[in-house]
Amino acid sequence: MNLNPQYPRIPPEAHYVESKTTGGHYAFQTEKASKPFQNNMRECKSIKLNDTDVVADIGAYVGEYSMWASTNGATRVLSYEPTPHSFELLTQNKLPAMEVFNLAVVGNDYEGSHTPLFISKGIGVTNSIVKSHRKDGFIKVKTIPYEEAIKDATVVKIDVEGAEYTYDIIQPQLRAIILEFHPISKKPWKVWANKIMESMEAAGFESIIRPTFQSGWSLTGSWERKLGG
User: Fold this and answer.
1) Helix (H, G, I), strand (E, B) or coil at 188
2) pLDDT score, position 131
3) 56 Cβ neighbours under 8 A, 6+ residues apart
4) How far apart are CA 229 and CA 226, in angstroms?
5) Is residue 115 a contact partner of residue 104, using CB atoms and an 8 Å limit?
6) Which residue of 16, 74, 90, 92 has the lowest C-beta tally within 10 Å?
7) Where residue 10 falls among pLDDT bands split at 50, 70, 90?
8) Residue 31 pLDDT more than 80?
9) Which of 24, 27, 15, 171 is nearest to 108 (CA)?
10) Which helix or strand (DSSP H or E) is residue 71 part of?
């Protein structure tokens, strides 16, 4: 099955998977895995979308949330993915409401049109512009500032493997935020994460799902701006 015949390239490690979330899409599978990797979408689905919403999916990977958003109310979905082979699948999985960009979203104080993208072993799900001991070399990728990437968005989903701490996440036009925090070795990432959550809640965002950091599975949360907030 070819979802996008105008873009026929499908990497050999990609497999088509049936999915209630997307209706079916291409995903990556490692040699050791019994099935292709799929993201947990609980927090993403906790924000109900409407036909006036523009969604920015930052760190879209192969586009699961972008696909879900484009068929569950959003009028436009802006999908940002810097890794070339992940972007190939994102483009293959593209639905009509999706606009896809092969760009790394950087903090607004970042200067330069390109940034190193540090590559992890495996299927690229943990590639990041933040260097860590887990990364295996880097490539240069084009960038876009966070504020520019989301300037038209009312809802943003951020999954960027540690770069989230460099963003000025709260912007006046946003009504909802879906955010995954990532541990960074030898850095006070929990302090940073708690400050971000406190700032969102002080700005009128109410937590729908709030991460507890009690395990590796409680790192993602969702927040919606309260009426009048």
Assistant:
1) coil
2) 81
3) 78, 80, 149, 150, 152, 153, 155, 156, 157
4) 5
5) yes
6) 16
7) low
8) no
9) 171
10) none
